[in-house]
Amino acid sequence: MTDTIHKAVIEIGGDASGVVASVETSKKSLDNLATHAAVAGSKASAGMSRMSAGGNTAAISVDAATSNMIRSIQRATASMQAGSKGSADYFRALADQRYKKYRQIGETRNP
Fold first, then answer.
1. Where does the pLDDT of residue 88 fall: very low under 50, low under 70, confident under 90, or very high at 90 and above?
2. What's this model's pTM, rounded to 2 decimal places?
3. Contact yes or no for 78/97 (Cβ under 8 A)
C-alpha cells in the first residue's frame, strides 16, 4: 500500500526576451567587427601596393643610372681609342663596344 502525502505540480517558466536581445547585440557587434576588419585589410593592401610601386620605381631608376654609367664609360673608352670624338674611328670603337655581345650571339647561332 502506498501512502501519498502530497501531490504537487512544479512548473518552471522563464522570459527569453533578454537572451534574444543579447544575441541581437552580439550579432551587431560581430558585423561591426567584420566591417572594421575589412576596412583595415583594404588599407593594409593599399599600403603594400604603394610600397611595391615604390620598389619598382627605384629599380627602374637604378637600371637607368647603370645604363647611363655604362654608356659614359663606353664613350670615354672609344674617345681614348680613336683620339677624338668626331672621327669615324670613335664611332666604330663605340659600336664595337656596345654591339659586340650581339655579334657574338649571332656568331654562335650561325657557325
1. confident
2. 0.41
3. yes
From residue 12, alpha-carbon distances to 9, 15, 16, 22 in Å are: 10, 11, 13, 22
Amino acid at 88: A
Specify whether the CB–CB gap between 77 and 97 falls below 8 A. yes
pLDDT band at 106 (very low <50, low <70, confident <90, very high): low
Report which residue type is found at 66: T
Res. 60 pLDDT band, cuts 50 70 90: confident
Cell of 2: 502506498
Q: Are residues 97 and 74 in contact, defined by beta-carbon separation less than 8 angstroms?
A: yes
Q: Are 61 and 76 in contact (CB under 8 A)?
A: no
CB 74 within 8 A of CB 98: yes
C-alpha 9/C-alpha 34 separation (Å) is 48
**pLDDT exceeds 60 at position 86:** yes
User: Are 82 and 90 contacting, i.e. CB atoms less than 8 angstroms apart?
Assistant: yes
Other beta carbons within 10 angstroms of residue 80's beta carbon come to 10
